[in-house]
Amino acid sequence: MRPTVLNPLFADITALPKIGPKLAALIGKVAGARVVDLLFTLPVGLIDRSYRPTIAMAEEDRLATIEVTVDRHDPPPQGKLNVPWRVLCSDETGFLTLVFFRAKGDWIREQLPEGERRLVSGRVESYGSQRQMAHPDLILPVNGDAELPPAEPVYPLTAGLTSKVMRRAASAALDRAPKLDEWQRPDVLHARAWPSWHEALTRVHNPEDKGDLNPQSVARQRLAYDELLSNQLALALIRHRRTERPGRRTTGDGHLTNDVRAALPFALTGAQEEALKEVLADMAAPSRMVRLVQGDVGSGKTVVALMAMLTAVEAGAQAAIMAPTEILARQHFETIKPLCDAADVACELITGRDRGQERAAKRAGVAKGYVKVVVGTHALFSDDVAFDDLALVVVDEQHRFGVHQRLALQEKGPRADLLVMTATPIPRTLALTTYGDMEVSTIGEKPPGRKPVDTRAVPLARLDQVTEGIGRAILRGEQAYWVCPLVEANDMLDQTAAEERYEALAARFPGQVGLVHGKMKGPQKDAVVEAFYRGEIKLLVATTVIEVGVNAPDATVIVIEHAERFGLAQLHQLRGRVGRGDKPATCILLYKAGEGGKLGDTAKARLNVLRETEDGFVIAEQDLALRGAGDALGTAQSGFPQFRVADVADHAELLQVARDDAQLVVQTDPELQTERGEALRTLLYLFGQNDAVKLLRSG
Ligand code: ADP
Ligand code: MG
């Protein structure tokens, strides 16, 4: 149960004064639905009002706050909407005209009564020989300067949400923030001069100068560290809970793996052997394995997994491999089945679409232990699938699953080892936040003889040429992908929708084009992809659903429309869809040129990285550097934790400290029962790590 002291923070933001459903919806877009979301939405800028010149001294175009006397109103003639309302003001050094277009006269008169003194804040400009200020953004009576803050925070905004409203909301949220028992170690706080949680929040929401916006300011560091610690502590608790439970020793005699090695048309690369060795060592150890094998697309992870699975079979047990989609499960099955046949090992495909007697028969085979190697989708973990003796679970493309699903998976084979495979090369820092509970093996080398994919950036204006190129590839018997970023046309963003593109291409290549997008139903989508996979369709128009890869060896061209809108790592993944056969392959990055037909510098730098290297790790690091962690790897849909305050690029050092801190906590106070432990529970709840708290015995 969440500590009651946190209740005000988890209340809906409509609980705050003057925030109704309409405003809440707008604030929801930039922050979130709860008070705590507002608290963790930090200012992104500030308005500095400390510049207080006289009228004569005011520099042009600089935000100035000036004390003036209101001399006279000069309203526009009746009906003349394009003439502004002027208010003539002065101080002892000169004259300043305040200018209001289309403003209500009553309001202006009320704000600026003739003969009175006012503070006005805005940008001063020269208009002929006059000095003027258009639409001051602050008008305040002069009764002690204390009323005017030297700086005002600027929050992320959205259409319809003003800075003023957002500031008021954030400030109301801050008023509700309770003082919480300290969960950080006193020596750490002292050494880094970090304020308390409450004090840190107060400071970040009341920045006084640019330095307070710096991610390395003590207040921001403190809050970032809180978040990183909650993340690392949750992972450490999961890991601890797992190691507490007994595992099993699984070793093989090589009689099956040797058969498969003999049946393979290639030898494993050094990198594959190395990863396999690490996996087998973990399996042979008495504790439960939780290991991530990461390797770029095409690095050959499947074979490594198969060898590990067959080792489990050699030990007399079963092994299962789970893929995130039906199509991928089928493809794994088609790869693995013949190799299992070569070793005389029974292998079955289990998915949610199995029906009737076949379904029953497959499941019985698995339950009785006749079937040794099982390939499947999530269906593997549904209640009607039971294993006789499951020793190894392999999960492909893990980054589609979250930490919590990982917990659930392990329930299926109570002592089973877990091997996770991901094709997304993950920068080290991100790996720590996501897989901090796992050991990591890396296949850093690709099988020999791979040809680089010819990667080109082409402006959208040359669309016709690109289409003709695809026509030639189709004539050669090859296939192509066409990737579009969105499903529905969005005029505002000028984004080409997959549907429109599909129609144009289908008209050009009748009967040879298929369309898949995220809003289609599973079976419908699979049917199209499989038709492509079988070669019945030559050109597959898709949104990024193909990212998690189908394997079509005849695909030699991939066109990525609006390439400038994708993350580098994502583009790299997409590119990995071609060049899987022996024919030379091309990746065309279609971009929308800006003014003068040119691509922006950052966009150009990004596309160049991609053209210059095919090393997914280099690309992932660059992506992180160029875009920041929030966007790298398309985190939003990928299961990487979304930090609100911390930034793994800015706070990489803190992440390491948090990791060590979390490990120490779990070693010394695994049930979080000490005084600090109690406070740490609150921290976990504060950052929504409720599942991790559930692991604790006395919860
Ligand atoms: P991924 O790591 O992307 O899952 P796969 O396991 O699908 O890669 O392997 C990609 C392709 O490389 C497959 O066609 C596979 O048969 C082949 N392959 C795997 N290992 C080797 C190797 N050592 N030498 C040559 N080809 C290999
Ligand atoms: Mg794979």
Automatic annotation (TrEMBL):
Coiled coil: none
The keyword Acetylation appears for this protein: no
Domain Helicase ATP-binding, residue spans: 282-443
Transmembrane domains' residue ranges: none
Keywords from the UniProt entry: ATP-binding, DNA damage, DNA repair, DNA-binding, Helicase, Hydrolase, Nucleotide-binding
Alphabetized InterPro entries for the sequence: DEAD/DEAH_box_helicase_dom (IPR011545), Helicase_ATP-bd (IPR014001), Helicase_C-like (IPR001650), NA-bd_OB-fold (IPR012340), P-loop_NTPase (IPR027417), RecG/Mfd (IPR047112), RecG_dom3_C (IPR045562), RecG_wedge (IPR033454)
Record-linked SUPFAM superfamilies: Nucleic acid-binding proteins, P-loop containing nucleoside triphosphate hydrolases
GO terms classed as biological process: DNA repair
One matching Pfam family: Helicase_C
Domain (Helicase C-terminal): residue spans on this chain: 462-625
Example GO molecular function: hydrolase activity
Alphabetized SMART domains for the sequence: DEXDc (SM00487), HELICc (SM00490)
Taxonomic superkingdom: Bacteria
Name this protein carries in UniProt: Probable DNA 3'-5' helicase RecG
Native source species: Parvularcula dongshanensis
